[in-house]
Amino acid sequence: MYKIDPHTHSLVSGHAYNTIKEMAEAACKKGMEVLGITEHSPKMITLTTDEYFMNFRAIDRNAYGTHLLMGVEANIIDYDGNLDLPDYILENLDIVITSMHWQCYTAGSRKDNTKAAIKAIEKPYTVIMGHPDDGKFPLDYEEVVKAAKASNVLLEVNNGSLLPKSFRKDGKKHCIEMLNECERQHAHIVVSSDAHSDTAVGEVSYAERLLHDMQFPKELIVNEDRMKFDSFLKKL
User: pLDDT of 95-146, one tens digit each?
Assistant: First the structure.
């Protein structure tokens, strides 16, 4: 089990079911060192606002026995990779994930989607590209991996994409394609639960099984090691 889970949601994300405290306490009980609370940004149907993210200074990052990273899963909103939060908010967050969601982004051609992903990756505050495995948004993984490596951005292996009933399209197939390209280019990845409830915090068994079966190099998995993971946060 990884002791760092960078991508989870509390109930303010709109379709998650526990408080920040409950998520953190669940992480602590599982012996986790770091938990990312990365709420969906405002263009999703959420309870978040710009002011919500601006007031994260009010939260004690070490109150519940697990270090919290308070951040966002920001929505890519167009083919230029623009996000639905301004830079003056993003620069003050602990962690920024950028993702494509059908509610906020209209899928284009493989070329359009790849351009959008790369432009989002190149944003100065992006740390992780979230679930780049969804076949609803076809990507050129050679180009996306190349951009992520150049920008020191992590590509996510999202356990939620690998669930048997995942709503993402062909998540496992595309994750394998991405991982093969990451290994070829020696690009780093991060493993996350994308938990929307406290019981799912740190639950990455499908991702672990896939990485094991592929014999993916452990040195490319950054949340195997706290210092390695922290080095990717220094850009913020």
Answer: 999 999 999 999 999 999 999 999 999 999 999 999 999 999 999 999 999 9
Amino acid in the structure at residue 182 = C
Instruction: Give me 204's structure tokens.
Output: 């990455």
- The Cα-based distances of 16 to 22, 34, 45, 47, 72 in angstroms read 12, 19, 11, 11, 14
Domain 4-233 in CATH 2.170.150.70 = no
SS3 172: helix
Listed by start position, the domains of the chain span 4-233
Span 56-79, pLDDT tens digits:
999 999 999 999 999 999 999 999
Q: How many CB atoms lie within 10 A of CB 76?
A: 26
Main-chain phi, psi angles of 216, to 5 degrees: -70, 135
Radius of gyration, alpha carbons of the chain: 16
Q: Are 20 and 198 in contact (CB under 8 A)?
A: no
Question: What is the rounded distance in angstroms from the CA atom of residue 215 to the CA atom of residue 61?
Answer: 35
Enter the tokens of residue 150: 């150049």
Q: In what order do the strands lie in the sheet with 95-99?
A: 4-8, 34-40, 67-75, 95-99, 128-129, 154-158, 189-192
Backbone phi, psi, residue 98, to 5°? -115, 135
d(CA 186, CA 188): 7
**According to DSSP H, which parts of the chain are helical?**
20-29, 50-54, 87-90, 110-121, 141-151, 171-185, 205-214, 226-233
pTM, entire model = 0.97
Give the C-alpha separation, 145 to 155, whole Å: 8
